[in-house]
Each structure stands twice: as C-alpha cells, then as structure tokens.
C-alpha cells in the first residue's frame, strides 16, 4: 500500500508518523500523543531538565529558555494523556526533568524568569500538568514540591501577559 502524500516529510521516508494515526477514539488520541513524545527521547539532557532538538530554533530568547521550552511544551500532551487514563513509558523523564529543572542546586536548573522571559510562558504547561496529572505531583518529595512552588511563584510581575502567571499559579494551586 502506498503511503499517503501529505507533504510532511521532515526527514522521514513516506508519510510523517503523525499522519499515520487515525483519530477515532480516546485510544487513538493517546497513541498520537505517544507518537509526538517518543521522538524527544534522545534529546533530553543528562538530568532530563532540558530538551535540545537539533537544528536552529529561530527563537529570540536564550538557548537555555529554548531548552526549557523543549521539555515543558510537550508536557501539555503528556498531562492530557495521563489525565485521560493513558500511560506513557517516558513519564519519569518529565518528572525527573521537573525535579532537576526547579532545583537551584542542580546544574540544569531552569533559572528564575526575568522580565519578559520566555520561561514565564513555559510555566503554563507545568501548572496545567500539575493540575490534571496528579502522578507528577505525587512523585515529588516535599523539598521538590517546594522547589516547584518557588519556581512557579517567582514569575509574577507586571510586565508579562496577565494570563500566564494566572494560569500557572491557578493550576499549581489546584495540584496542592
């Protein structure tokens, strides 16, 4: 059977893997989410706090913030997968990444956001994941929870989008 012509090649022979998943029910959406998450595995940093995808990012912020984006943007999908009753073999990668990234003593610490810092935007998916996927919060020690709370709580200032700190702190409060 010939692969469908989608125009989505991106280094794959034939159709892009995402286009091969037919979305018909919850299980198929969960499979699509796994298909989105799996390719990130080789790009996790040693402590799992960052994901550095190859190639140029075309972003206007620092490389560290780009790598924080690399781990936290996909957590929207992971959290939805877990919240919907799905399982993912790499869930521990993200949990370890949250532990490492929010620990100021870890060499892969994400750093506190500054004014107009991209890290503030990445707080939304972290807050969302804590709110809808209890397994993430439950796998943090008390010290690690304090680190997460400190990292999220240090973002609020008047110069960033009003919704970003509101969404991230609302979701984090729901998790606790």
UniProtKB/TrEMBL annotation:
It holds the Pfam family DUF2264. Residues 25-162 form the DUF2264 domain. InterPro entries: DUF2264_N, UCP014753. It comes from the Eukaryota. This is DUF2264 domain-containing protein. It comes from Colletotrichum spaethianum.
């Amino acid at each position: 059977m010939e692969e469908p012509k989608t125009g989505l090649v991106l280094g794959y022979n034939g159709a892009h893997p995402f286009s091969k998943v037919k979305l018909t029910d919850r299980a198929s959406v969960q499979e699509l989410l796994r298909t989105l998450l799996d390719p990130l595995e080789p790009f996790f940093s040693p402590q799992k706090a960052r994901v550095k995808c190859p190639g140029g990012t075309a972003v206007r912020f620092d490389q560290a913030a780009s790598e924080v984006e690399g781990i936290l943007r996909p957590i929207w999908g992971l959290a939805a997968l877990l919240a919907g009753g799905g399982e993912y073999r790499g869930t521990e990668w993200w949990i370890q990444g949250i532990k490492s990234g929010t620990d100021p003593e870890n060499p892969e610490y994400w750093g506190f956001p500054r004014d107009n810092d991209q890290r503030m935007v990445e707080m939304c998916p972290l807050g969302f994941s804590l709110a809808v996927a209890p397994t993430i919060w439950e796998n943090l020690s008390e010290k690690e929870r304090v680190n997460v709370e400190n990292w999220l709580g240090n973002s609020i200032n008047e110069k960033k989008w009003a919704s970003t700190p509101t969404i991230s702190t609302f979701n984090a409060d729901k998790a606790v």
